[in-house]
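ENTRY TYPE: protein
WANTED: fold as tokens:
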Amino acid sequence: MSKRLALSLGLIALAAAPAAGAQTPPAPVPAVPQVPAPVAGAASFHATGGLATKKARYYSSGQRATLRGRVRPAVAGQVVTLRVIRKGKVSKRVRRKVRAGGRFTFKFLVGNPGRLRLVVKHAATARQAAFRTKGRRIEVVSWTAGQGARGTHVLLLQRALVSLGFATPVTGYFDDGTARAITAFRKTNQMGTTGYADFAVYGKLFRGQGGYRLAHPKSGKNGKHVEFDWSRQVLVLAKGGRPYRVYHSSSGAPATPTVFGSFRFYLQTPGTNDKGMVHSNYFIGGYAIHGYASVPNYPASHGCLRVPIPNALQIFNWIDIGDPIYVYR
């Protein structure tokens, strides 16, 4: 090999060799993915069931309350907790998963009488921040009412009766009209015949129960007709497939029984006749619905269907000639 060639190869090798003390560059560090911050949230809810004024919602002792609410924004996989607070202490905790659309539902027994405050909370998670709702107050009560009572408990009693079709004034004062409605409610539900609203009566009304079930809901034009239930001794004005008004009534005594069957009203006579019949509505022969001074809790008439005189005009004005009536056991 010539000296010139050897020198050239040496220079090439020297150029290819790393310089003394040179550092090898570090391998690139992979980028760390950014974890999104938890989403802020808020929730609202409302209570259903029971009886309510603009200021408060009331439940009967031992009743089941239902709360429905919504979380915004909705984040999958979240859980909310209902706290039931009585006298400043948490008496009950109920956990529920948040459903699609952020909706949630709680159902719980309200327990004994007293004031409860309800709060829904969400504990912080990796996906949604902590939040809580404003507290809502409900009242758990054990009410009764009778003649002469007045107040919120009477007003709500009357509203509940009217919502089920029982004829009563809505004044907040327990008068004779309210007592008659309670009698009709009791007779409908086979709870006796008094006009006193005890805890059992309130219990049904708080739950929206105890309405009359029509035997002929589709009869008449737009469902407008009359039914008399001999076994319960109540008269029902019906329309639209549901009871419009339900009245305490009395049918024929055993010696002079009321006829059973389906009929149509053919004659109405206003005022009081010489037999003491007030605002009479005839449906076959001399058989009529009419007001009368005495309307006991058992069959006592000469065959007609007696109603209390204060209710007679309302019934008279509601009935039209040709309307059907069904009298059945």
Summary: The mean pLDDT is 93. The CA atoms of residues 57 and 138 lie 5 Å apart.
